């Protein structure tokens, strides 16, 4: 007889309206994931976001002064970004009269 291995997974059960399940199933299908994998990933990502918002950053008064100095320094233009902003958007077609 084989010894049972201890599972480290913990089940979570919830009741959802049929419309919510349909939306979750559709989204999971588009990602090629099972409903369980999709919901687990979404829940963990949401939990990480909340925890990251609560993270306390500590620094010395000198470090904070240096941090503020960097924030107050005017930004230097990045030539590639300036060129990108000046480009015509792909959906802005050139009128036939201009070509």
TrEMBL record:
The record's listing under SUPFAM superfamilies reads: Ribbon-helix-helix
| The keyword Lipid metabolism belongs to this UniProt entry's keyword annotation | no
Q: Which domain of life is it from?
A: Bacteria
The UniProt keywords, alphabetically, are: DNA-binding, Repressor, Toxin-antitoxin system, Transcription, Transcription regulation
Q: Which Gene3D superfamilies match?
A: Single helix bin (1.20.5.780)
The record's GO molecular-function terms, alphabetically, read: DNA binding
Q: Which InterPro entries match?
A: Ribbon_hlx_hlx, TacA_1-like
Q: Which family does it belong to?
A: Belongs to the TacA antitoxin family.
- Its name, as the record gives it, is DUF1778 domain-containing protein
Annotated source species:
Phreatobacter cathodiphilus
List the top taxonomic levels of the source.
Answer: Bacteria, Pseudomonadati, Pseudomonadota, Alphaproteobacteria, Hyphomicrobiales
């Amino acid at each position: 007889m084989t010894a049972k291995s201890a599972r480290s997974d913990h089940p979570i059960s919830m009741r959802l309206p049929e419309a919510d399940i349909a939306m979750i199933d559709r989204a999971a299908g588009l990602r090629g994931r099972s409903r369980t994998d999709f919901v687990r990933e979404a829940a963990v990502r949401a939990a990480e976001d909340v925890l990251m918002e609560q993270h306390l950053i500590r620094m010395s008064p000198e470090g904070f002064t240096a941090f503020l100095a960097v924030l107050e320094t005017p930004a230097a233009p990045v030539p590639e970004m300036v060129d990108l902003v000046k480009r015509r958007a792909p959906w802005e077609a050139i009128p036939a009269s201009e070509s």
